[in-house]
Amino acid sequence: MKKLIPFLISSLYATTALALDPFVVKDIRVEGIQRTEAGTVFSYLPVKVGETLDDEKAAAAVKALYATGFFKDVRLETENGVLVVTVQERPAIAQVDVSGAKEFTKEQLKDGLKAAGLSESKIFDKALLDRAEQELKRQYFSRGKYAVTITTTVTPLERNRVGINFDISEGEVAKIKQINIVGNQAMSEKDLLSQLVLSTSGWMTWYSKNDQYSKQKLAADLESLRSYYLNSGYLEFNIESTQVSISPDKQGIYITINLHEGPKYTISDVKLAGEMLLPEEELRKLVKVKPGDTFSREKLNESSKAISDRLGNDGYAFANVNAVPEIDKEKSTVAFTFFLDPGRRVYVRRINVAGNTKTRDEVLRREMRQAEGAWYAADKINRSRERLQRLGYFTDVNVETPAVPGTTDQVDLNYSVTEKPTGSIMAGAGFSSSEGLILSGSISQQNVFGSGNFVSAQINSGSVNKVYSLSFTDPYFTDDGVSRGFDVYKRTVNTTSLNTISTYSTSTLGGGIRFGIPLNEKDSVSLGLALEKTDISLTDSASLPLKNYVAQFGNSASTARADLGWARDSRDSLTYPTAGGLQRIFGEVGLPGMDIQYYKLSYQQQYLRTFAKNYTLLLNGEAGIAAGLGNKPLPFFKNFYAGGITSVRGYRTSSLGPQDVDGNSLGGSKRLVGSAELMFPFPGLTTDKSVRLGVFVDGGAVFGPDDYQGRYSKVNFTDMRFSSGVSISWFSPIGPLKFSLAKPLNKKEGDHTESFQFQMGTMF
């Protein structure tokens, strides 16, 4: 006959337990298990066959079995010296289903449930179910759907299993109805609200989602407010509290921010102290704050970083620079002392690269500006990372500088990269207001066999320009970075569809070799030699100068073209530049001994500067001059043109400059173009860098050779055309787009204007 061990429950939950007479366990039997192995139960029992079971071991056994989470009831019984363990298993989850979800896919929600510990084949637990519901709500709250309701149904199934279904009623997205800022006196509420990403509903919030509350966004906005005040002199600024409330219908969010501004502080003195390894005069040039300035945390941090980076360039990798304040609350002034602790000078023992499963090590190492065995130089390490990023082979490049164990003056450089596909096969279409539909296709590999070499074949078909080309480039033809490339191309120009240009067509077949020579990190020289054969075809409506040229020199010509250029590129980005500049000179010469002899020289200067955080000023100027050589005129198909979305907006493409008697543009031998454009984020999309608005003023003209008749025969600034307007640049999913709406400012008789212009597939 079985006897229930009397102390079972009381030993677990009471301070006083009934005593058990210890007995020797002759055998152990487990009853009630369906899925759990008997061995699992045995492993948790603190007593084995032949050992004595007392009340302490029995209590420990019950606790251990409950703790597994497999059982919802555990009993210990004895039968003639046999310990009988009777359990009742918790049911297993046979299936998990989600219904009613629209904001998320079922897979996304099930992944969240799995992260919360609820998934098929797991043991069912009510507490776990509650956590799963909260996880689902959390996901919906992150999308602003605070009215979401979740109905959970647990259905018993055969073999002690259950099915769980979450029926979701998502509700509508809650929108921010009001943001109140309390306590501001020096700053207007309008200025403070402009610092926040979160906003009330507006005409672009359907896209930005900034009218949907997010705890993370609010935290970032509070830090933006703090930075705004601290950078404006309010040293004692503090955000005292924030309140977020939701309307009873859970559709409206109300945010209140309580802040304390405090007085505005000015800087009374700036000192340098500590171990100054550099001349104090040089260090003071790195300090961006001076007595009399309004306190700015941003400038203070920039000063500390600039000094630390400067010491890092000399090998002091762990330099520490702290700005210690001395506050005078009565006068609302603060003095700062920069304490310099350079630490030990260290050198780089070894450079390691990881993650490049395809790209050869040598391709990465040749971009390194920091050398092994040399003193640590922060600027060279950062430049190495930038050069790796600019290769275009990697989605991410990280660098770490761990200290070498057992040393105090050595570090290793560990560069880790994440490779991305570098080959592409593309087929696409673009549209230009000047050329109409443009069909294009290309196949390219930027990193052939991991060697860093570039190969591409391209087709670009437009109504005006058609290009077919094959190119190969070795960026490290020599160890010191001289590149070599080969090109074979066929280029066709047909101006028939451009109503503003005298009609002609040319077909050029050519091939050439080119070299690129880096002079330093920003400057490079390019040179090349190409052989070209050009066939010319004129229509009956072609202008007289074009007919005279063909009559004198024929409709077929060969050219040996030499190219030479220099460029300095300090822009911070090739796709979204906000600072730096570009300066380049490019010349091409048709060499003597061939049918066509000429020179063509172009110069461009571009300058970018960002101010007020999100506003970028772009200044661009271009000038060109060309002429024939060897007593031959400049071939008309080498003329310069201006007008259109890439030069002077508001005027039709290539329409500016000398014209024939029918009003068609002839192009010219001299070109002058300039632009000033202020670019800023699209309203409501301040954090989205893919869309930018701009306001601009363009100016430019083309001037003909001296033998051109009428206007524009010589450079005359009164012949310049100007325009102003607005632009939109968008890196869209289908490619870069550019739109402009411009108004000519000094239109004259015979000018061809075009207010709205757009282009797909290229950006200025």
Automatic annotation (TrEMBL):
<feature type="domain" description="POTRA">
    <location>
        <begin position="265"/>
        <end position="343"/>
    </location>
</feature>
<keyword id="KW-1134">Transmembrane beta strand</keyword>
<dbReference type="GO" id="GO:0043165">
    <property type="term" value="P:Gram-negative-bacterium-type cell outer membrane assembly"/>
</dbReference>
<dbReference type="GO" id="GO:1990063">
    <property type="term" value="C:Bam protein complex"/>
</dbReference>
<keyword id="KW-0812">Transmembrane</keyword>
<feature type="domain" description="POTRA">
    <location>
        <begin position="91"/>
        <end position="171"/>
    </location>
</feature>
<feature type="domain" description="POTRA">
    <location>
        <begin position="346"/>
        <end position="420"/>
    </location>
</feature>
<feature type="domain" description="POTRA">
    <location>
        <begin position="23"/>
        <end position="90"/>
    </location>
</feature>
<protein>
    <recommendedName>
        <fullName>Outer membrane protein assembly factor BamA</fullName>
    </recommendedName>
</protein>
<dbReference type="InterPro" id="IPR010827">
    <property type="entry name" value="BamA/TamA_POTRA"/>
</dbReference>
<dbReference type="Pfam" id="PF07244">
    <property type="entry name" value="POTRA"/>
</dbReference>
<feature type="domain" description="POTRA">
    <location>
        <begin position="174"/>
        <end position="262"/>
    </location>
</feature>
<comment type="function">
    <text>Part of the outer membrane protein assembly complex, which is involved in assembly and insertion of beta-barrel proteins into the outer membrane.</text>
</comment>
<keyword id="KW-0998">Cell outer membrane</keyword>
<comment type="subunit">
    <text>Part of the Bam complex.</text>
</comment>
<feature type="signal peptide">
    <location>
        <begin position="1"/>
        <end position="19"/>
    </location>
</feature>
<dbReference type="GO" id="GO:0051205">
    <property type="term" value="P:protein insertion into membrane"/>
</dbReference>
<comment type="similarity">
    <text>Belongs to the BamA family.</text>
</comment>
<dbReference type="InterPro" id="IPR023707">
    <property type="entry name" value="OM_assembly_BamA"/>
</dbReference>
<keyword id="KW-0732">Signal</keyword>
<dbReference type="Pfam" id="PF01103">
    <property type="entry name" value="Omp85"/>
</dbReference>
<dbReference type="InterPro" id="IPR039910">
    <property type="entry name" value="D15-like"/>
</dbReference>
<dbReference type="InterPro" id="IPR000184">
    <property type="entry name" value="Bac_surfAg_D15"/>
</dbReference>
<keyword id="KW-0677">Repeat</keyword>
<dbReference type="InterPro" id="IPR034746">
    <property type="entry name" value="POTRA"/>
</dbReference>
<keyword id="KW-0472">Membrane</keyword>
